[in-house]
Write a structure and sequence with these properties.
This protein has 353 residues and is α/β, with parallel strands linked by helices.
Length: 353
């Protein structure tokens, strides 16, 4: 039975890397693997905003709700404030479909140079809370444009929200090296961060086989640069998880490699899969965008949809390609987006399952 995929390429290089990801998925859907995907493209992004005054229609979530997954590129353009593009497209999907886990795996691929002198065998997953926390629209401004102007931004942390993302991190750690590090800032943020830590340790009691610790996010950021191999699964709030996952991507070569999955683990709604990079208007249209983050995100999507063998083939083909030196300029190579995509497709048939 075919599985329905909503495709939102978005803006800039999002269009280019999603096209690359679809080519890889199509190469796997050869009639023999049992993989059958049916795509529906949605033209939502900045061009749609300029024409309609919004990034997606009012019934956008209704249009997406019956899909099995959403494959997303990037959103944003220089002529529209980032807060507008994010809050009118990406965040409504994450929250509307209760995609409360933002999963961001990173590892140092063969053939890719880390900016660190002695990186070691980096393999870290950041589990980021994805629907509440610091990314809240609770607050406001008054006396705008005057000396009395005040801006207030509220963070929202619920026990249910923290507990479920922390539990996901512990379950994931059980399948890996059984270490969970909680990212906190409880020495400076005196209400929400201690609350996050308390819930973390309460849940940890259910997982005596998993080693647990907490680190202040600034120290954790430093240790990711100094000793990245000590970390396995990092779990953090919306803001801290976002920042730390950019660091884990950077120390493994470039953010163009890194994928992410916006998950509803209970599968009540479609989950969404995307590279973590932005729309990169400075290189859009040049054919040099790194497609690996989007292709790896496609692998995460297949795994979520119940095709782990095909997902493993994609990741093996990616690593064989980087090991062979087929790299885009962001990784120090000279290959185009299409050349890297073709190289990955060519290696799919030889990839280990």
């Amino acid at each position: 039975m075919s599985q329905r995929i909503a495709v939102i390429a978005g803006d800039g290089i999002g269009v280019e890397v999603i096209a690359a990801g679809r080519q890889v998925l199509d190469a796997l859907s050869d009639g023999q693997s049992g993989l059958e995907l049916q795509y529906t493209a949605f033209p939502w992004g900045t061009a749609y905003y300029h024409e309609h005054g919004r990034y997606m229609p009012e019934d956008g979530l209704q249009q997406l709700k019956d899909f099995d997954a959403i494959y997303f590129g990037a959103v944003g353009a220089p002529d529209v404030p980032d807060a507008l593009s994010l809050w009118q497209l990406l965040i409504p999907m994450r929250r509307g479909f209760d995609q409360y886990v933002n999963l961001r795996p990173t590892r140092l691929l063969r053939g890719v140079s880390s900016p660190l002198a002695n990186p070691g065998d980096i393999d870290v997953v950041v589990v980021r809370e994805n629907t509440e926390g610091e990314y809240s629209d609770v607050g406001g401004r008054i006396f705008s444009g005057t000396e009395r102007e005040i801006a207030i931004q509220e963070s929202i942390f619920t026990r249910q929200g923290v507990e479920r993302v922390v539990r996901y991190a512990f379950e994931l750690a059980r399948t890996r090296r059984k270490r969970v590090t909680g990212a906190t800032k409880s020495n400076g943020i005196r209400v929400t961060m201690p609350f996050f830590d308390e819930v973390l340790f309460a849940v940890a009691k259910e997982y005596p086989d998993v080693q647990v610790s907490v680190m202040h996010a600034d120290a954790l950021a430093a240790q990711l640069v100094l000793r990245p191999t000590r970390f396995d699964v990092i779990v953090g709030s919306n803001l801290l998880g976002d920042i730390l996952s950019e660091i884990t991507a950077a120390i493994t070569g470039a953010i163009g490699i890194a994928p992410s999955a916006n998950l509803d683990p209970e599968r009540r709604h479609p989950s969404m899969f995307e590279p973590i990079h932005g729309s990169a208007p400075d290189i859009a249209g040049q054919g040099i965008a790194n497609p690996i983050g989007a292709i790896w995100a496609a692998a995460l999507m297949l795994d979520h949809l119940g095709h782990p063998a095909e997902a493993a083939r994609i990741i093996a083909a990616i690593e064989a390609t980087t090991a062979a030196g087929d790299l885009t300029p962001d990784l120090g190579g000279h290959a185009t987006t299409q050349q890297v995509t073709d190289a990955i497709i060519a290696r799919l048939s030889h990839a280990l399952v």
